[in-house]
Amino acid sequence: MPLKSDLQHxxxxxxxxxxxxxxxxxxxxxxxxxxxxxxxxPFILAFYSLHKSIGMTALILAALRLGWRAFxxxxxxxxxxxxxxxxxxxxxxxxLYLLLFAVPLSGWWFDSLAxxxxxxxxxxxxxxxxATPNPGMKAFARGAHEWLFWLLIAVALGHAxxxxxxxxxxxxxxxxxxxxxxRTLATSAATRMSESTSATLEKLHVERTIxxxxxxxxxxxxxxxx
Length: 226
Ligand code: HEM
Ligand code: HEM
Description:
mainly alpha; Fumarate Reductase Cytochrome B subunit; 2 domains; 70% helix; elongated; binds protoporphyrin IX containing FE
């Protein structure tokens, strides 16, 4: 499957990054919500470290995704999509990109303000703090991290619901072309479309040329108006 997207299909890089980031957000959300409810014992440090490292990975992938997007063409919306809906979808995608950065950055910010332990990336190297320690701002940053996460989930649910509307109500290729390994389906849909377009063009051509070439066909066509 080609790495790059084109005007009809998402390429494998865009698809992989989309679904990998979705997976990481789900894992991170579950891990975050579970770990804050655990009894404050030393074993929870491992969960916190894992959460922070996966969160930094999600941040890196979001940056890679945006970077790749700058060089990758974006498939067009199906022709049947009304203009206001296309604009709405783009605004929703922009908000999702914003939140993909805001959620991990707010976690990193909270961690820096709290300054309880150095931040290690999977135990490999230390990541510098985002801000100087500030216990007075900690509660605000913690709340921001939590509420930005819930906002991301709410917007992502609306986004997923729209994907299902496209799939099951509008019956277009918006969702199927984002699914792994489905380029052939999208291609065959495109081929079917171009085949039906050619058939229509051919029919028009025949209708325009036959009356002049064949008196029988010409008389048959003139009959209703006679
Ligand atoms: C996509 C990335 C992330 C997601 C989806 C996420 C999600 C969450 C969630 C849902 C919670 C529980 C909030 C609560 O109920 O209080 C949480 C807590 C936490 N997160 Fe994240 N997080 C992400 C990235 C990060 C990063 C990058 C860091 C730090 C470098 C971080 C640090 C923390 C900390 C320290 C807590 C515990 C807060 C507390 O003690 O109450 N998170 N996160
Ligand atoms: C945390 C969850 C999710 C996030 C953050 C997210 C984010 C995004 C973003 C930013 C785009 C725009 C891509 C671009 O223009 O570069 C996109 C596209 C897309 N997403 Fe998601 N997504 C999430 C979950 C889902 C789910 C659950 C589904 C399906 C059920 C889905 C289906 C799609 C589809 C079909 C597109 C392509 C839309 C088009 O061609 O116009 N996404 N997603």
